[in-house]
Amino acid sequence: MAVVLFEDDLVSQLFPISVGRAAANISCGGFTLVELFRALGVRPHLTVRPHLRELLRADGLLTDPTGSDTLLRVKPGEALVLVNARLVPSVAAVERVIGLARDGKPGIVRSGDSVALAVLAPDAPPLSADARPAEVVEFLGGLQGAPLEAELPLFQFPHDVVRYNLTTLVGNLEFRLKQGSYREVADGVFAADDAKLGQYCVSETHNGPVLLDRGASIGPYCFLRGPAYLGPGARVIEQAAIKDHVSLGHTTKIGGEVEGSVIEPYTNKQHHGFLGHSYLGSWVNLGAGTCNSDLKNTYGHINMEYHGRKIATGMQFLGAIVGDYAKTAINTGIFTGKTVGCCSMLYGFVTTNVPSFVNYARSFGQVTETPVDVLTATQARMFARRGVEQRACDIRLLHDMYELTRHERQMAGEPLSL
User: Fold this and answer.
1) Are 269 and 275 in contact (CB under 8 A)?
2) Distance from C-alpha of 160 to C-alpha of 169, rounded to nearest angstrom
3) Strand boundaries in 198-255, DSSP class E
4) Strand 333-334 versus strand 349-350 pairing type
5) Strand ranges (E), 106-232
6) pLDDT for 248-302, tens place per residue?
7) How confident is the model at residue 189 (pLDDT cuts 50, 70, 90)?
8) What CA–CA distance (Å, rounded) separates 210 from 393?
9) Of 252, 260, 265, 267, nearest in space to 292 by CA
């Protein structure tokens, strides 16, 4: 079988998370969708938006599954399965997809108004390997197929990443423990051979395990309450509190108190401060004392605002959604249920959603645009600190992200005014 993870037109609804990130590379429950398929023995192919192709090819994640210009040139008798890249990366969902793919019976699984999965018949029309989201949607709209029975949840809005992290992390960690080689270094705390647990740590794991992947480390005097996942090379510094459904990507550096949150690779939250029920993209840095609120004073459900549209989440606890490369100054306070655009820099109190590529100091009466050249220089310095090479495709992506988010900073050609 050949599995293709496709981006549809609703991937932009996941901004700021998906501005510079393929939907299949969004972390949730300790996995990305690509990682989980590979862990289950399937190497998926991706169709992504044009501005991401060069970067994903450089990272070895984007290949042509056919050696031609269409997706349908597969081996005789092999099923071709299109899977929505917004699929929540849970073991149960991906195992169900693989089961339907191996069965090979043509049909379609829908999640709301979206196609979650399509098993194509041998006579299905061709689809370009470089299809844009709109072209994929048009292609899927022309397919004829019987409905297939499966529960395949999709990310609809950014806060869904936080929501599904709470429901999938335990099952995904149990899968990792069965598949990997871990030693139990404390009650319910499991570590890869080269992971380290500091002295005088206290763990509470009756709701789920704490798993330290290869090269991860936890400093002394920490409090750990599972379920929690520390990716490869993740570092939790001394006297930190990691509590309930925390998922840390590789090469992260974390301190203070973190609860119910997803943190993508290469992000720093080193100092004291609270982060609750939030999502942080990659290469984010939270300054000392930065805190966010994840509960309204009324204890009511939290509404999010995306692109001027209010969305009821039904969630009582929900913090911030922070895009890639965002930075906060010391003692920044982020109000409940706010989105922070990619490549933005925050100061003081964050009482509104923050556009991408701005210096946000609204409490001081200043919101100004940040030139992309400033971010390019910042990226070079950040990469050098982590021993990562800054490539032409990394720089190009910043420029593309700047253009993709221009509408957030300007309306009808008017200068920035917030």
Assistant:
1) yes
2) 14
3) 202-204, 210-212, 217-218, 223-225, 228-230, 235-236, 241-243, 246-248, 253-254
4) parallel
5) 107-111, 114-119, 183-186, 189-191, 196-197, 202-204, 210-212, 217-218, 223-225, 228-230
6) 999 999 999 999 999 999 999 999 999 999 999 999 999 999 999 999 999 999 9
7) very high
8) 36
9) 260
C-beta atoms surrounding 76 within 10 Å: 5
**Hey, what amino acid is at 325?**
Y
Give the tokens for residue 261: 């949150």
Identify the CATH assignment for 159-409 out of 3.30.365.10, 3.40.50.300, 2.160.10.10, 1.10.3660.10: 2.160.10.10
Q: Cα–Cα–Cα angle for 208, 210, 213, nearest 5°?
A: 140
47-105 confidence digits (pLDDT tens): 899 999 999 999 888 765 444 455 444 555 667 899 999 999 999 999 999 999 888 88
Name the residue among 377, 266, 273 with its Cα closest to residue 319: 273
Q: How far apart are the first and last CA of the chain?
A: 51
Query: What pLDDT, in 10s, does the model give residues 306-319?
Result: 988 999 999 999 99
Say if residues 231 and 252 touch (Cβ distance below 8 Å): yes
C-alpha–C-alpha distance, residues 79 and 83, integer Å: 13
Q: Which residues pair with 312 in a beta bridge?
A: 303
Nearest to 122 by CA among 82, 74, 83, 84: 74
Distance CA 105, CA 88 (A): 23
Residue spans of the domains in the chain: they are 2-141, 159-409
Give the containing element (helix H, strand E) for 328.
Answer: strand 327-328
Residue among 253, 183, 175 nearest 208 (CA): 175
Positions of E strands within 65-130: 80-84, 107-111, 114-119
- Collapsed DSSP state (helix, strand, coil) of residue 1: coil
